[in-house]
Amino acid sequence: xxxxxRFGQLHQWNRCMSTVVSSNDYQYLHRSLIPTLxxxxxxxxxxxxxxxxxxxxxxxxxxxxxEGSALENTKRLTEKFLQGEGRKLHSALIQVDKRNxxxxxxxxxxxxxxxxDRRPIPLNHTPFIGYVDETDSKYASQIVRATxxxxxxxxxxxxxxxxxxxxxxxxxxxxxxDTLFFRKAxxxxxxxxxxxxxxxxxxxxxxxxxxxxxxxxxxLPQEGKDILRRYPESRHMLVMRNGNFYVFDALxxxxxxxxxxxxxxxxxxxxxxxxxxxxFPLGVMTAADRDTWxxxxxxxxxxxxxxxxxxxDSAIYCLTLDDDKIGDDRVALFRSFLHGxxxxxxxxxxxxxxxxxxxxxxxxxFEHSWGDGVAVLRFFNEVFNDSKKKRxxxxxxxxxxxxxxxxxxxxxxxxxxxxxxxxxxxxxxVKKCDSLDVNAAEVPLFGKSLLKTKKLSPDSVMQLGIxxxxxxxxxxxxxxxxxxxxxxxxxxxxxxxxxxxAATKAFCDAVTAEDVTRSNAGKFFSxxxxxxxxxxxxxxxxxxxxxxxxxxxxxxxxxxxxxxxLYTDExxxxxxxxxxxxxxxxxxxxxxxxxxxxxPSGYGIGYGxxxxxxxxxxxxxxxxxxxSFTEALKRAYETIHRVLVAN
Length: 647
Prior knowledge:
Belongs to the carnitine/choline acetyltransferase family. The chain has about 650 residues and is of the alpha+beta class.
């Protein structure tokens, strides 16, 4: 793959003459027997729920947060919608869906929702996933870990690009289907039916349509609606340090990886560069509102910065190096990975970025418009596992000698007005970052092991703790959002699990009205079991595209002129003003993940549960008391623990 001629000629890059390590073991993560996209043509389509089911689910959810005349009014408006305007909109949606069998009914409008949003994307649309620490000191430093993970990420890129990455498949019973026999059998099936063959063996292929935008991709600001742009010919990396931009070739002209010492040399060269921190860090402009950034970018290009911008936009991905050594401060780590404290050492538009602190802690962030957690988590896990399995360098490895002609620091022309704009945007972004409170709760009382013996869903228990914390702090049940992937369908995105249910409300009401004792613990455990069953059913329905949120969102999209009364109902508005925005990513490589609260008076809750412990990180703005809520979370899980151990 060749570097775009215009970029290469203008910069006159000198190609590194390193000897390419040619073995397949070095060049690839693995070589899948099944072509990467083998299942894609036969993936089932995302179903559109029946309108009657959607309305029933909507009322069931509203019944948990409404009562009296408000609930009766919402029931009346929902019935009116079901019998009238809703049917017309549903019919229109079905007709459009039939004409677009290559995609899902939700995908185009979901892209539009993100790309038309003119708010700044950091905090709102750039979550992060943090890696567990490297425990072996020989590989734990920033330069060693960044180099090893860079090499592994390039293996991922090359393996995917050549169709050799294992397809994403959820194995219901891995011992039976995650086998060589399965792979050989699936390879023999035509792509047009292969997904159904896999499903017959209780293995469920997942949509990989988001993978092309994972790497070599960026979001570009445009007036009214941004665009996603791919650069399939690019083969260079972007590295940021102190707000400065550096680029170097990541692959040779044949698309192969260089030797490990070359990458170590490139990173070492950047870390040794004595250039001062950028006085006007251009990266902060990607934290501006999209209209401001659109206008500013146009001025950048008019001043002759197009080549440098293209180098940033077209990079395989962005790797950032921070000087801060975080240590064991989980809150400081969270803030560093979520927004970088507003210092400008981030390019939030890039589809994917890999960050390293001064003491070698690492995380991935991604811009949310192009995709969801499934594709990112696959990259995250593959890079982690490969970098642990194939440790290419250590603290004693000598780097190749690298000069300025191989690693180039990009320069941007800025006039005085643009410099002032950068300063103003940075001040506002720092204020926003400072206003976001972060609190962490770690509960070593129990984890998945105990819940497994009690036959309870770990996710249901985590969600129940969040509901109980809301009861403790606010005395009520609030609108709750948990994201669930619909990647089992072609171009599926997500569906909402509305985890505040009649079952969780009953448990919270009971446990706050009466202390848990050994004599009454059986009653509470029975309520807990009901919560687990209801939550499991909701999660299953959501994963199968049978929630109500995406369907109502799509029907609203089709409404022209005056909206149906259901959408202008105060109860609908309130249900979609998310107080408790929650998400989890469970994997051995994940240490912490998170995002900002989505409403001024709400909470952003990233949580995880391991075998013998659980934890949450809570974000909030001044309109909510994150510290009190976090303490309430600890109390909630302690209460649930008393119920568990008494049975």
